[in-house]
């Protein structure tokens, strides 16, 4: 298979292949971590609090023509899940400063959350046009492409962010997912490891790396990564289902069933856990 690191994104599109282990497919497909790793200009979660929004509103009352104040409050609204209010603030930030590439990228992320893909793409494109070195916009647009199945375009954007020396772990995590989906697990492990080094308290890199270890037959390292993910966040269904997969492969069906059950408690719609529980309960 062509190496996408040297052959480019065209080869990446042509070279897609199934994962070595069929049992990994449903779990790897859920390895996106999606919006869970997303951020609005990397703000602290506390910035979505009612207190912080009130404080930012007071700033806007004092300086109603400050575009950055609207951008910051929009980010806080977005963090709080108040998307319509976030859009209004980003609209105002852009009206006051049409060259605010951060506001365009932030608004694009809100459009992504709302499922308005074309608007999100237009805003990411505008952010990049205004600042071709803005890594956050490449990462956001790349994830938009990845979710749409446009793997080549996604790879190119993540690669560009990495070439810009980004310190954002999402670039490496997302590129790792693309390597993983194409069966290039050693490259995926390297990217997940880099993401972990940049965000060691986030579980997503460990889950991703664990799946690639498992695909290469390295159960010990996979199990260690899944257990680390659980220690970091024991309310993530994916981590428990991944741990259960190792137990299942080892023939420890009773333990596997318990872990799959825990995953289903956390997310009753998580299909890999439901299917795994059916398998292991029947074999126990």
UniProtKB/TrEMBL annotation:
Signal peptide start and end residues: 1-33
Origin: domain of life: Bacteria
TPR repeats: 67-100, 101-134, 135-168, 169-202, 203-236, 237-270
One Pfam family cited in the UniProt record for this chain: TPR_8
SUPFAM superfamilies referenced in this protein's UniProt entry, alphabetically: TPR-like
Keyword terms: Repeat, Signal, TPR repeat
Keyword RNA-binding set for record: no
Keyword Transferase: no
Name under which the protein is recorded: Tetratricopeptide repeat protein
